[in-house]
Amino acid sequence: EVQLQASGGGLVQAGGSLRLSCAASGFIYDDWAIGWFRQAPGKEREVVSCIGSNTGSIYYANSVKGRFTISSDNAKNTVYLQMNSLKPEDTGVYYCAYRPGTWYNKEEYYNTWGQGTQVTVSS
Asked: Which residues, in sequence order, are CB contacts of 111 under 8 Å at separation 6+?
């Protein structure tokens, strides 16, 4: 069983930065993927970014390209999401999710979810 611990959320002004972390523990496959998703109030959860551990293949949603950077420290089984130039529309609860194998940019492919961390961007 895999457990995920997401952290790093907070309150920041527009234009500011935050770095989210997602630490995985438990039985972890050598080849795994982590996806970051977010859910704004009153909206459906949407994909933000994904990364594969073996290939380093990366996906970004169009809304965050050029502003967010995903990276992984495989030795620590930890994935980071550096968020720069934050906008009020980035506000939401950010979740990380794990799956063995390659990444997918759809939440139904992920079988383990972290508890979520709140990101609030004020205008």
From this structure: 98, 99
pLDDT tens-digit profile of 90-112?
Answer: 999 999 999 999 999 999 999 99
CA-to-CA dists, residue 102 to 63, 93, 109, 122, angstroms: 22, 24, 10, 35
- Is there a contact between 6 and 114 (Cβ–Cβ < 8 Å)? yes
The answer to whether the CB of 85 falls within 8 A of the CB of 67 is: yes
Q: Is the pLDDT of residue 115 over 90?
A: yes
**112 φ/ψ angles, rounded to the nearest 5 degrees:** -135, 130
pLDDT exceeds cutoff 90 at 28? no
3-class state of residue 21 by DSSP: strand
Which residue do the tokens 């079988």 mark? 111
CA–CA separation, 71 vs 40, rounded Å? 23
Dihedral-angle region of residue 116 (phi above 0 means left; psi in -120 to 50 means alpha; beta otherwise): left
